[in-house]
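Format notes (please read before filing issues)

Several people have asked whether sequences and structure tokens are stored in separate files. They are not. Every record keeps both together, in the order shown below: the sequence lines, then the token lines. Line labels are part of the format and must not be stripped during preprocessing.
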Amino acid sequence: MRKKTKRIKRSVAWMIALSLLVITTSVGGFFFIMSELERNNNNNNNNNNNQAEIEKEKAREVKRVELINEANILVSGYYYQEAIDLLKSNSDIYNDKMKNEVKKIEDFVAELKLYTGRTEQVFFHSLIVYPELAFGPNSSQAQGYNYWMTTELEFQRMLPLLMERGYVLVRISDLYEVDAQGNVSGKELYLPDGKRPLLMSVDNVGYPEVRKKEGFASRLIIDANNEVTAVIRNPQGVEIESRTAEVFPIVDDFVKEHPEFSYRGAKGMLGITGSWGVMGYDPKIASEAATAKEIADRLKELGWEFVSHSYTHADGKYFSEDSTLEGVKEDTELFKKWIVPIIGDSNVFIAPFGITLKGELYQYFIDEGYTFYLNVDRRSQPKIIGKSVLMPRINLDGFVMNKDKAYITEHFFDVDKVYDSRRPVFQ
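Then the structure lines:
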């Protein structure tokens, strides 16, 4: 009996010990499993956090590349501070890479050169788009067109050659400043080495009916893309929209492709002659004047400027050796009445026929607020005269390319690479 009791006690002890072992093992296993699960969860969370950060950095890098590309375009258009400000505009992505890009621009700006050379201004009339009409047997003035006009093909050939020579379109206000008292002084212009400023103007931006039949544009419009485009009658007499039928869309498209050809968005000046209409519209018809103003406002947004080329563009008492003060006053008042409300005020006057008025006639224009008087003279340079600047211009047309070929080739482009073989023999 005593032995049996001992055996029972031993069995119970073993059972208790075994139970404790099972319990201990189970608890330990539970805590081990929980520990492992927690560790795995932490690892997963860390991995998720790391992956999220990687994706965020990828997005930041995409934005960096985007801003750097935009900044490079700004720099090519001479918007240096704007490019720097853009690169610094987002603190979330501004890192050492962006700092290096800023430094590159600052170093580039430090190397700019003060321009001290010649200041050239070239001018054109409306372009001959269809030489077969302009020079054809039914043309009203084939020889005049051959002398004083440039063909669309020639103009398109000129632009890349001018750019190769280092020319950059600028505004008069980039070269001169006028104080509150009307005093004029030269302004310092810094450009990359090898670049030189170029002023461009276009005369008589109106379209007489006869020219609409002779291969010239009919009018300007704002097209479906909010661009200013020319409308022209083709040889079949059908009106079409064309980006190559006038100076303005050609230059706009060229600058889009080559922003380095335009200093801070500068394009050129439109010389409006009142009696010819305004870009194809009659300023005395309210609805047409309103359309012309919309186009003028859009051209200003695109970098163009409007200036006076007189109202009459007539000789005699207006603009000739026989000009009278009464005549130029009459012309100026007509321009103010009909044209200024459309194009706005300007301090630039393009003299008809390139004539340089003298004495009280010249002073009259200065007193009227025309600080810059533009004549025609291929070899002279701008000259400050009192509170005005007399600014010569060069006509890049058939006459000059024939009669002054060597000079144009030396200063602007190789005439042989530009000249349109469809021109008639020059007389």
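For reference, the curators noted about this record: The longest strand covers residues 196-202. The radius of gyration is 37 Å.
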